[in-house]
TrEMBL record:
It comes from Phocaeicola vulgatus (Bacteroides vulgatus). This is site-specific DNA-methyltransferase (adenine-specific). PANTHER family: DNA METHYLTRANSFERASE A, DNA METHYLTRANSFERASE YEEA-RELATED. It is an enzyme of class 2 (transferase). GO terms for biological process: DNA modification; methylation. The keyword rRNA-binding does not apply. Residues 248-507 form the Type II methyltransferase M.TaqI-like domain. It catalyses: a 2'-deoxyadenosine in DNA + S-adenosyl-L-methionine = an N(6)-methyl-2'-deoxyadenosine in DNA + S-adenosyl-L-homocysteine + H(+).
């Protein structure tokens, strides 16, 4: 698999690269062990040289693209995509926690569709526009004025995107690349010079879930530090990625290994555009990678001591020092992200622990006594994820939870009966309704159901008003009893798109019948666009979805089984259901008229008709 390393590669380049990697917070947390797993290996002289040969043997390039079209095919390296890390992990560890590797064409499609609609909404809100599609937005965007480009970039960078079951981070990587490509398409992507200029000599786009930079002749961009133009482009891409990763992308997973893999994948995305900086002594080294690990947290997305309350604060009203406390919290988190010194980072961690302790002391614990009681066991509480305080980026200056703009992902597929202890916990947890009365946290909970239904409901809880939710998940909720509450939820919320893959198997290593849902956190608009895909064309999924779309009126649907393979099939099923019910009613009336002693039979028939 490995090919010959290009011998003309700069040795100093390699040494600096490895040195910076080893200084990164991810590697500082990692202990090297020998093959017998007994002792730690010391960093000895020459280890950097050995490591640079290993790193240089690989191209962290595209997953599916052939060598001829690879961004860095000139180096003739083996193609290893960052997503391979996720694939390896999820193959090894995924089955036990219900995680399956999501193919790139799925993550790219979901992020492409969801990000664009959310960006359209953001611009409409900022400029009081009425754009319906991304094409409408592109026509209105004024990229000729620098001030307008700066404002437009700020709008895009204000997006808050979260995957509550992040696994290896595949969706976040797709979102990262998609946002940068979207800026290029809008004409607002600009360099990071003091007086930023629009990047118009290159097109930045996504193909096969990989970010590509090509000039007008179709030539791929290649970083050359001796070229000022090349240096500026490379630095711009790095800084764009850093900004988006630090302020736009968030993830949570119960599995600590998933969290580490996700962090590593995001660092690798930055590494693809690492650039040289010149020190005071004239030495050139790679730009240090930021501490992005704080945005990817380990915990149970479904469990929290403080229930999620959109537009509410966990603090009591009238706290005079509240703004100061939240401001300090945000500053500490920002300091952490930009800290390069290990001892300083440890000091910042201590400050973070202290400030979180203060926040918990100030919180309205008395409002959540039921959840405190439910979570008093150490084994359950230690994994809870406190959404109301863990991500200061989605808190206002007064500590109000403002929520995320986008929730995407591939939630785990686990029968709740298989995790009985946690299932009982999910069923007992409470939330506060609009009148501050306690009620069940998960209306979709069914002890015989599947955990992905809870992630659907949790997604809506985490979204701000008119925020967007998109998952790939099993389609069982359409037709099984435990999906009744999910169907009711989608009749209340605005389920805009449902893509049913039928018998097609999307995951290579699992027999799972799946669908993609796209919804907006608002009241239903009365129509669902349903696409039933007969044959999966990975390179043309968007076109196939559009071609197969049929409109279903929600007033014709209820919480009963949904038959959505086609409008014709749905009408046939409804007619059949009415005919059977009518026939059963006639036979029931006959039995009563003839006064047969069939009371038990009649009761059973009536129960059957009510189902």
């Amino acid at each position: 698999m490995l090919q010959e390393v290009n011998k003309q590669e700069s040795e100093e380049h390699n040494k600096n690269l490895v040195r910076d990697l080893l200084q990164n917070s991810y590697y500082r947390q990692t202990n090297a062990v020998n093959t017998k797993g007994k002792t730690d290996l010391a960093i000895y002289a020459g280890l950097e040289d050995k490591n640079n040969h290993v790193l240089d043997a690989y191209d962290f390039g595209t997953e599916n693209m052939d060598v001829e079209t690879s961004l860095v095919h000139r180096e003739a390296k083996s193609i290893i995509n960052a997503s391979v890390l996720g694939l390896i992990f999820e193959k090894i560890n995924g089955y036990k926690d219900g995680a399956f590797f999501t193919p790139s064409f799925i993550t790219e499609y979901i992020c492409h569709q969801t990000l664009r609609q959310s960006v359209v909404d953001k611009f409409n809100e900022a400029y009081s526009w009425n754009c319906v599609s991304f094409d409408d937005l592109r026509e209105k965007t004024d990229y000729g004025k620098r001030d307008e480009r700066v404002k437009a970039n700020a709008i895009v960078n204000s997006l808050k995107i979260c995957d509550p079951a992040v696994k290896s981070g595949h969706f976040l990587v797709s979102a990262l690349n998609g946002l940068i490509a979207m800026k290029s398409e809008l004409g607002i992507l600009q360099d990071c010079s003091e007086v930023p200029r629009r990047i118009k000599d290159y097109e930045v786009k996504v193909e096969d879930d990989e970010l590509l930079v090509v000039d007008e002749d179709g030539n791929f961009f290649r970083y050359e530090s001796v070229s000022p133009q090349s240096q500026l482009i490379q630095k711009t891409l790095f800084e764009e990625k850093r900004t988006i990763i630090e302020y736009c992308l968030f993830g949570v997973d119960l599995n600590p290994k998933s969290v580490e893999i996700c962090r590593l994948r995001l660092w690798i995305e930055l590494l693809k555009n690492a650039y040289y900086v010149t020190l005071e002594d004239g030495l050139k080294v790679f730009q240090t990678l930021p501490n992005i690990d704080i945005n990817i947290k380990c915990g149970d997305s479904l469990v929290a001591k403080f229930p999620v309350r959109m537009g509410k604060s966990i603090f009591l009203d009238g706290r005079t020092n509240l703004g100061k406390l939240i401001g300090e919290y945000k500053r500490i988190v920002n300091d952490y992200k930009h800290s390069n010194d290990k001892s300083l980072k440890n000091s910042i961690n201590q400050r973070l622990t202290k400030i979180k302790g203060k926040i918990r002391q100030e919180a309205q614990l008395e409002l959540f006594e039921d959840n405190s009681t439910v979570l008093e066991g150490k084994d359950t509480y230690k994994n809870s994820l406190e959404w109301m305080m863990e991500f200061p980026e989605v808190l206002s200056n007064e500590g109000v939870f403002e929520g995320f703009d986008i929730i995407v992902g591939n939630p785990p597929y686990i029968h709740l009966e298989e995790i009985e202890k946690m299932s009982v916990l999910y069923g007992k947890m409470k939330k506060l309704d609009v009148n501050n009365r306690q009620c069940r946290l998960y209306e979709t909970y069914d002890a015989r159901g599947d955990i992905y239904t809870l992630f659907v409901e949790r997604g809506f809880q985490l979204l701000k008003a008119r925020g967007h939710l998109s998952y790939i998940m099993p389609d069982k909720w359409l037709k099984v009893k435990y999906g009744r509450e999910v169907r009711s939820l989608f009749l209340r919320k605005n389920l805009t798109d449902l893509i049913d893959f039928g018998d097609n198997q999307i995951f290579d290593d699992a027999t799972t019948y799946t669908c993609i849902i796209r919804a907006t956190n608002e009241e239903s608009k009365g129509n669902i666009a349903v696409s039933s895909i007969r044959i999966v064309n990975q390179s043309g999924l968007s076109d196939d979805v559009e071609a197969a779309k049929e409109g279903f009126k929600t007033d014709c649907l209820d919480s009963d089984i949904w038959v959505v393979s086609s409008c014709m099939a749905w009408k046939l099923a409804e007619r059949l259901k009415r005919t059977i019910a009518k026939g059963m009613r006639k036979e029931l009336d006959r039995c009563r008229e003839k006064n047969f002693s069939l009371n038990l039979f009649c009761i059973d028939i009536e129960r059957l008709m009510q189902r």
